[in-house]
Amino acid sequence: MGARLVPRVGRVVRVVEEAPLVRTYHIRVGGIAEPEPGQFNVLYIKGFGEVVISVSDYSRVDGDLVVEHTVRAVGAVTSYMHSNVDVGSLVGVRGPYGRGWPLKEFEGFNILIVGGGIGLAPLRSVLKYVSRHRDRYGRLVLLYGARRPVDMLYKYEYGEYKAIPNSSVHFSIDMPHIGWDGYVGFVTDLIDRVDLDPATSVVYVCGPEVMMKVAAAKLVKRGFREDRVFLSLERRCRCGIGICGTCQLGHFFVCKDGPVFSYQEVKEYLSVSGL
């Protein structure tokens, strides 16, 4: 465990401006394991602090990993990153940590992905994985919504998503916008339009917690099993290994026992205001 607590020095090799206050950092680093879909790394900004960020994708270059982290500027460390970390900057990387999306367990199932806002980042790894192993799964459906078109992530990949065999992609925005001809409303509204057999389907959800609660409740009402609806709860994580207690949720530590949980595991905690 000690070695996993020591950050490896990585270098930013690319930065993509995804949306207002949202950037994807491509960080080349050696000496860390390949992340499973849904896992996270802890990024260390020298002299400033650490932040837990999910791995949205990765690739290999000459034995090193290039990990992709989509970062929204919402706190002290992430805001500092946006202002001071760019191509060529050094970043400490430790991980990967956590329990990711259960994919191998559901080979042969249909896949429904429901994402809201920045929540598409942890789900992107599911899309990439299923695309690479397309013959192992049934139908793939993506529902993704954001407040405005400009807030939508990975727009340059939508053609790739739509080209995945036996799949469908549906987008929504919260409010009307000039030039938008798609659905206007909450992404959870689109669940009612999904034509998948709940008995042979698994669902992966990530977004604001209120959105995930609504989505899970709708899905269960539609007949999807609580133990086949999975949520990613990357909230308040700090140490990454369940020591500091910052991310405790009931008897779980989100960083250690999650960040991915079945709705069955956490539904009682999601209904408690302020927890």
3D structure, described in words:
This protein is α/β, with parallel strands linked by helices and 275 residues long. It has 2 domains: 3-97, Elongation Factor Tu (Ef-tu), domain 3, CATH 2.40.30; 104-270, Rossmann fold (3-Layer(aba) Sandwich), CATH 3.40.50. The chain has 6 helices and 16 strands. Strands 4-3-7-1-2-6-5 form a 7-stranded antiparallel beta sheet. β14 (248-249) and β15 (252-253) form a beta hairpin. The longest helix is centred in the C-terminal third of the chain and has 14 residues, at 209-222. The mean pLDDT is 93.
What's the helix and strand layout?
Blueprint: E1 8-19, E2 22-29, E3 40-45, E4 49-54, E5 57-61, E6 64-72, H1 76-84, E7 90-97, E8 110-116, H2 120-132, E9 140-146, H3 158-162, E10 167-173, E11 183-184, E12 201-206, H4 209-222, E13 229-232, E14 248-249, E15 252-253, H5 254-257, E16 260-262, H6 263-270
Parallel strand pairs: 8-9, 8-12, 9-10, 10-11, 12-13
Antiparallel strand pairs: 1-2, 1-7, 2-6, 3-4, 3-7, 5-6, 13-16, 14-15
